[in-house]
Each structure stands twice: as structure tokens, then as C-alpha cells.
């Protein structure tokens, strides 16, 4: 069974990112957060995605929807990374590769499929 994130978990993860790295606290757009968290669930319900595509949906939608005042890129990546981990996969990318991925997603230079390809290339089963 696939383990998806609850809203409470993502908000706690976001708060931890702010505690560790700084930034303004708060939710900017509740609907944007609900949309971002619904994307992986909808993909799972109506398509046949693999875990990499579902992780990419978390990353892409949190980064692009910008639901929080600050820390969206960090939270989006943490959501994707922990989704993979909770589902038996470990991300083995360098910090530089991760920063490049997140920057490219935020700039619109890579789409959800590209992010999924990144996760396929840089994960191992645990």
C-alpha cells in the first residue's frame, strides 16, 4: 500500500524546514496547498503512476502552487524525498543535483515528468 502524506504532516514538515533554515511562517493560500496535496492522490486514483511520478507530483505542485509564505521549494523537495523513503526508496543524489532540480522546477525549466525522471535516476530500494 502506498503511503501518502497528510496535510498535518506536510505542515509540520514545512515548520521544521523553517525552524532549521529560516523564513517567514504561515500559509499563503489554503486552496493551493489542498491542490498540491491532492495531485498525487488524483494521479494514483485515475492514472497508473509509479512512485517516482507521485513524488514528482508532490515536488512540482508544492513548488509551483506556492501555498506557503516561504519555504515552498524546501517543503516540496522534503515532501517528495520523504514520500519516496516512506515507500521503500532512498534518494541518492548530491546536494548540487537536488538544488539544480528544485531550481529548474521553480523556473519552469523542467516539468513533472522531468522531475519523475530525476527520481528514477537517483533512487535505490531500501
Structural class: mainly alpha
Query: What pattern of helices and strands is seen along the backbone?
Result: HHHHEHHE
Total number of domains: 1
How confident overall, as mean pLDDT? 98
What is the C-level CATH assignment? Mainly Alpha
Sheet-strand content, in percent, reads under 5%
Could you give the count of β-strands?
A: 2
User: Major beta sheet, specifics?
Assistant: 2 strands, antiparallel
| CATH second-level architecture | Up-down Bundle
The third-level CATH topology is Four Helix Bundle (Hemerythrin (Met), subunit A)
Which strand order does the major sheet show?
1-2
Question: How large, in whole angstroms, is the Cα Rg?
Answer: 13 Å
Distance between the termini: 16 Å
Helix content: 55-70%
Domain Fido: 5-121
Protein name: Death-on-curing protein
Pfam family, one: Fic
GO molecular function: kinase activity
Amino acid at each position: 500500500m502506498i503511503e501518502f502524506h497528510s496535510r498535518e504532516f506536510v505542515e509540520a514538515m514545512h515548520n521544521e524546514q523553517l525552524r532549521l533554515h529560516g523564513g517567514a511562517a504561515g500559509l499563503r493560500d489554503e486552496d493551493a496547498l489542498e491542490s498540491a496535496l491532492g495531485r498525487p492522490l488524483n494521479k494514483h486514483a485515475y492514472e497508473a503512476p509509479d512512485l517516482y511520478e507521485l513524488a514528482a507530483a508532490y515536488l512540482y505542485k508544492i513548488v509551483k502552487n506556492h501555498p506557503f509564505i516561504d519555504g515552498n521549494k524546501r517543503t516540496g523537495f522534503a515532501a517528495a524525498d520523504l514520500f519516496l523513503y516512506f515507500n521503500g526508496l532512498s534518494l541518492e543524489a548530491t546536494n548540487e543535483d537536488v538544488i539544480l532540480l528544485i531550481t529548474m522546477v521553480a523556473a519552469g525549466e523542467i516539468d513533472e515528468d522531468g522531475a519523475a525522471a530525476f527520481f528514477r535516476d537517483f533512487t535505490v530500494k531500501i
